[in-house]
């Protein structure tokens, strides 16, 4: 059984920050459960382009509002609390938060916690044995 508090991750290697977002990685590959789970905050007035070429990501919005663009089709979606989107086709996408937005994100294959976006917005496919 895994039990933790999100606040326990503050300032640890599981608390990853970038210019436009902060991700606290609650469940990682090392836990051996087949997915990773992250709490991510995207900052108001920013724009983040991403492309999870190596992962499927499900994103559930729990706070804030913004616009999600499918960069491949140009289709735009209003995202707010209760909205879910799944990048089941490894779509290139851009998020534009109007205010700070908070998400719960699930990745498969699971992230190791060391991933950061490269110049294309891609997380590399890193692997790690469960402990």
From TrEMBL:
InterPro entries: Ectoine_synth, RmlC-like_jellyroll, RmlC_Cupin_sf. CDD domains: cupin_EctC (cd06978). It comes from the Bacteria. Its EC number is 4.2.1.108. Keywords: Lyase. The keyword Lyase applies. It catalyses: (2S)-4-acetamido-2-aminobutanoate = L-ectoine + H2O. It is an enzyme of class 4 (lyase). Signal peptide: none annotated. Pathway: Amine and polyamine biosynthesis; ectoine biosynthesis; L-ectoine from L-aspartate 4-semialdehyde: step 3/3. Transmembrane segments: none annotated. HAMAP family: Ectoine_synth. Belongs to the ectoine synthase family. Catalyzes the circularization of gamma-N-acetyl-alpha,gamma-diaminobutyric acid (ADABA) to ectoine (1,4,5,6-tetrahydro-2-methyl-4-pyrimidine carboxylic acid), which is an excellent osmoprotectant. This is L-ectoine synthase. The gene is ectC.
């Amino acid at each position: 059984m895994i039990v933790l508090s999100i606040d326990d991750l503050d300032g640890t290697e599981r608390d990853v920050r970038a210019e436009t977002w902060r991700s606290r990685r609650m469940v990682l590959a090392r836990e051996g459960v087949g997915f990773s789970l992250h709490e991510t905050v995207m900052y108001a007035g920013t724009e983040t382009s991403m492309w999870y070429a190596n992962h499927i990501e499900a994103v559930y919005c729990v706070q804030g509002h913004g616009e999600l663009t499918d960069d491949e089709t140009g289709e735009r979606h209003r995202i707010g609390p209760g909205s879910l989107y799944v990048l089941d086709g490894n779509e290139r996408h851009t998020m534009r938060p109007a205010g700070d937005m908070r998400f719960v994100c699930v990745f498969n294959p699971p992230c190791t916690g060391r991933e950061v976006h490269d110049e294309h917005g891609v997380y590399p496919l890193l692997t790690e044995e469960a402990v």
